[in-house]
User: Fold these one by one.
Assistant:
Number 1:
Amino acid sequence: MKPEEIRLYGDPVLRVRCLPVDAINDDVRTLAAKLVATVDYAQGLGLAAPQIGATWRVIVVVETQDDERKHHVVVNPEIISACGEDISEEGCLSIPGIYASVKRPQSVVVKGLDIAGESITIEASGLMARAFAHEIDHLDGILFIDRLSIVKRGLLRRKLKELKKRAEGKMSSTR
Ligand code: ZN
């Protein structure tokens, strides 16, 4: 599977509330494979469907252990419980070059379906919990910069504007 182009900040698809998947079919399996191929190509820790232009509730979170990358593809993911608080620096493949500290739960329990359609529950903490929270936000059109204070976002305004311009230029040249 070839990696897909990652949609950048400014692309309206990143603001869409994605639809739940009601049946795991070939389209969903293909979407999952594309997410995995793209997140690996970008060497990211997670990716959500809208980042490659699909508006279904599907994410992948990568667990790294030594040099191994284990992919957790979750369909219709939901955080069913969260605990603690952790403030760490975060970035996003759709917002390249911008990093900021974001408050996230220290640990989460995520429920959803795997790619075989089986119900799964994943307990995650630290970086993985952060990745799940970040990717699930994407499915509701929420970006990590939305979780910053107005002051912090203000400091990033110019950089974000430049990114948006770039994304808009890209969109008009491909359509
Ligand atoms: Zn992201």
Number 2:
Amino acid sequence: MELTQRPRRLRVNQAMRNLVSENVVQKESLILPLFVREGLTNPVSIKAMPGVVQHSSESLKHEIDRALALGIGGVMVFAIPEIRDEMGSQALNPDGILNKAVRDIRTQVGENLIVVADLCLDEFTSHGHCGVLDQFGRVDNDRTLEIYGEMAVLLAANGAHMLGTSGMMDGQVGAVRKALDKASFQDISILAYAAKYASAFYGPFRDAVESQLQGDRKSYQQDPSNIKESLREIQLDVEEGADIIMVKPAMAYLDVLHAASQVVNLPLASYIVSGEMAMVEAAAAQGLVDRERAILEILTCLRRAGAQVICTYWALEVAQLLDRK
Ligand code: PBG
């Protein structure tokens, strides 16, 4: 054979493959989502998410110590209150579980990792929707924005570096940016869940936060069939002042991430959601895939598709794996 072009020459050994590798995962780019539940004395494990727990304040502290020691990029805080009501009013309680957890974490970490607070009402409402309802039971966009604005200022005052706007209300990034700026929190950044789809893959998360949701979120989260709509949502969030743009879920949405990377001059984030994690864990538990390889492959492919930041429940474990390599 007279082959001039032999791509295999660049794959002869690991050193060669490393030399020409186009995308690497770094632990500094990983964000670990954390759940903290009000009133717990011991952590409670979550169905379908091996290794993930609802934290007590005590176990949360240990987990943050591990995150600091391993050197990941940040943590993202979700809180489960004892009391839920129509308005999600515990979200605006300065001593409510979310504000308290954010305050404690920030005191513990200082500037050594980024504290992202989830900014949404679904954990706090008795109906489980991401906003408050109007008299017809529909999610009231603009009243919800007012609450998001107040929530943003409180979370910033309690030490969040960054707010994750995950509610998919129209204008949420602009409303949050305006409220923050008005309260002199110009340096608090916004991680915009710009393209967030109404996905079946959020199932285990809803167990994790004991979601009260009946029905679905299809009147605010996006239809999985659409991508132009994502580009529009992303464009709006950029115009409204987002600092990082997120596409969610991850694995079935790589085309959206890639399309975003072609048009957006902001860092992009991807979130490997609970159901995606559960699929890998279930397959690995049955011996169907090599768990560690599968995890690293998924993260590498997210990088390749355009993500700088990756939110993953595997963040601490991946940091350990990368240290070992
Ligand atoms: C809602 C929120 C959800 C997730 C993150 N934020 C659930 C939803 O939209 O129903 C899902 C994350 C996951 O599945 O890991 N604030």
